[in-house]
Records
---
Amino acid sequence: MSLSAESDNDDTSGDRSYCFIELVALGAAVGAFAGVRYILNPEPPMLPHVTGRQWVQMNLQKEQKCYDNFRMQLDDFLHLNDILVRYHGLQSTQEFDSLEGLGMFLWACATGQPLRQIKDRFDRSLEAVTRKMGEVAEAMIRFSHTVITPKDPTYTHVHHKLYKFAPYFDGCIGALDGTHIPVQFDRNDRPIFLNRKGDTSYNVLAIVDMDMRFTYVGSGMAGSCHDMAVLWECQKTAYFPHPPRGKYYLVDSGHTLQKGYLAPYRGTDEETMEGHHFNMHHASIRSVVERAFGVLKAKWRILRGIPHYDQNRQAKFIIACCALHNFVMACKDTRQPATNITRAADYGTSAWVDANAETDMEIVQRMITDGLYSNHRS
């Protein structure tokens, strides 16, 4: 072999050796980088599979987890489950026990998650989740008829919070107002449910007593409906608590002053000192319904925007949340420890209310106005 040939072979061999060394070095660098990357961002460990039933049971082991996910204390959760099973048709099956079904419903109402997120959380099929949510909603509607109702339908006593206004607001048995609950609808249904802000919603009417308890909830009316139209429709239902003789609800300026419904002054009447003074006290008392809506929406986040469901079911979720609100309040009242502090007592209806029971509502409004302003000046 010639010297030049040997030289070429040596060069080729040297190039190959150099390339091999580069590859080895590159591989080592990649391996080192991968090791560092794993240390900095390790792969998440495989979590053990947890079914929906197991997840609910885990939450029922700790009081705080139960409250965080189901928005009520453990004893209240178990008590509600017992009531729904015993009296309102909630059933346990081989596929779903009642605790998991109730837990699923409460978690959905508490978080406002759509069906697919509920499906993932509870490791169930979409069909199973949809069916069970409907079953629990039906049980909750039956339950609502027992808790969304006046404590005393005869209203023989005046609430103690009205004492400082006595006797002028002794006929008040609660506050009535509406609120818009955002809801997702199919495209074809959207125009019907558009409210004045351009959003799709239900215009929900509610009556609240002075303890912030819902005594009536009318759900299902389109957001495009006027408040008076919603009231007229609700008055036709079997469960609407019509004010008895001499009693009335406080309503806002969107409602008409009429028998049983005391509205504030509007227009020039509001500008007078007497009218302004009346409206100030009227708004102070009526704010109880606004506070109730605030508490309701803060606890049950589904009311901030109900995901896409069947329309009838969406309306039922709203009533169910109001029933849960009343139930939780009732449970809290039973747990209140006895104290030496004397609670102000309710009192009997004054003769002033009885004497004006048949008086036209405009005259009643004027009499209350004059009485309040006279006391204010004296």
---
Amino acid sequence: MSDINEITPLSKDEEKTLNMLKEKGMTFKGSSRAFSTFLILWLLSKNDMHGYKIIKKIDEIFKPQIEHELMKPTKPSIIYPLLKTMEKNTLIDSYEGLNSLKKVRIYRLTPEGKQILSIIKKDFKDNIKRSIWRELISDLGFQTIE
């Protein structure tokens, strides 16, 4: 089976959501920004969080790579502008909260953000069915999914 035939078509609602984002100018200028957006959406699907906690959670995900100096810790100068863009594009919103008696902005997913996260998860599921991804997963020592 060719890779292109393994991809599940988007529903009309998913297409509508993606077109809405494109119309708003929410396009990614690189895979790292797209992946960071996915991580933020995923983290906020678990709990509302302030920016510093989001940064710490991302660093927790990549702790071994950071400790072995294969990656640098997440920079606030990357995450806060991304949060602002995501909020402007209605993927997330924020409210004022307290952390250790200090005022902070707490971020949470919007319905649009939940829908985009759902589409991204579906895309990941489709991607791991493609031969190039199966090869990558196998080479990393993980069991491939048939």
---
Amino acid sequence: MNDRPVTKGRRLFRLASMTARVAGGYAKSRIKSVFQNDEDAERDRSATHTRSGEIIAKTLGELKGAVMKVGQMASIARDILPKEMAEALGSLQREAPPMPYEVIAEQVERELGSPPEALFARFDRVPFAAASIGQVHRARTDDGREVVVKVQYPGVDDAVDSDLSSLRLALRASGLIKLKRQALDALFAELRTRLHEELDYCNEADNVRFFADYYRDNPEVVVPDVVGERSSQRVLTLTYEPGDHIDETDSYPQQLRDRLGANVFRTMCDQIFELQVIHADPNPANFAFREDGTLVFYDFGCVKRLRPEVIAAYRKTIASGLDEDYDGVERGLVELGARNLEGPVVPPEYYKMWRDILTEPFVAVGDYDYGRADIHHRALEHIPGFLMKYIGSFQPPAELVFLDRVVVGHYGTMRRLRARGHFGDVLRSHLVSA
């Protein structure tokens, strides 16, 4: 929607209207199900999930801001949302329509004291990219450096808390999220914390510097430099680091795609298990690839620092799964807070079923081909059974929301790269302290 930001009052009205439509749709579906056979009721329920997802996606996409960002996260949360809704929310992963240049110029002047034309030798009026909370413009500094200028949409930070409260109400009203209040509170508290951090571009600048320093001597990873004199809480200027979008890697030779895939996987493991600080927004637009095998990182607004005890339990759980030690898997999930012991007992066969699906790339004999991976399809086939039998046995720990997001997101990246390799050795090398 190529428009000025929506006012706070208007946002609340739009979100309340969305909540009423979603809740009304589910109420109607529940009433109809009383008079339907099981097959018709299931068909109607599926259609209601799809319609509700489309209503939520349309509203969040037009409002941008925190709710759109949460919608993007929710689109991969297939463990707590019906697949029809998750698929509808997937539309939010596409690039958002930009704001008018006048809105951006006013924001730059408010933040840096002068309009873009006075601060830069060149400032492109057409954005280089647009997202949920801001957009990026190419520019050149007076000393000749090519840079990108990330400008936050006005008013986004003021609306975070009310947006999240309204979104939570909508999801609760639909009856979709079957979580205990304590778990839901922790989940939304984690989202709120990460979003407030992401909206503070001074915090993001610190994150960029942290990762740039960590990868300084790694020739296979590139992180931009911060241009501090042209940055503030809502404007962030970074050196321009070019690279190919993942869609452009289709023409790369297999050997190069394998090398890039190994780089992606190794980098993910290093961040999770060694650095214990993760770049937690694995949207494909936040990475670029070069023909020399280099991986370029963009957008460090969402960074999660992981607690050592969480990573210790995570290591144990994965190692137990690889070794088919299902008692160990159970203990690890309890330590992680993912296992609700008040729910139904989970038999070893159930863990084995998931183990055989999820560990496939790491137990394969020889090279594993991510281009042929169907883990996501096989996992989705078992979601209905999970919802019927074991949903009460598990809960998504807030601490793992962004870690899971990274793992799922990079699985998608590896599939799109069609990377091949022996990834089990790399993973096991990071589990030695388990």
---
Amino acid sequence: MNQQNRAVKSSRGTHEPVTQAMLLRCYAALDAIRRGYGSRELVATLGRYLLIAGELCHLGHQSDAIGRIAAARAAVVRMDATEQQDRVWRIDDADYSRLCVAFAILDDQLSVASLDDIAKAETSIAEGLLGAEREPVVVEPI
């Protein structure tokens, strides 16, 4: 096996466990919330990975899916608002479906994005959260 093939195989060997762990966190958090075991930490996990999906769209990985990612982010905001009002973590079927679609998109993105692009997306989010003034999120009825 030549050095280039070995490097590709090694890269894929590193890539898959990282991306599968990311997806496992997404689906575990979503499942827990769906079953009534939500928490602020789990909702933050959903939001974090939706932000990563959005950044990957901006980096050219399924850029046409940005609207579906935004719809899923709005679902997370609604879920948070419901919890603040009712003190119960709840997600309706339509929002659950939006999140499933968004995480399927993230799965596709992660399967083709390089670890470098994934790191760029995460860095961009961290810099945005640390340095930028946050704009209020406006949630409109669907």
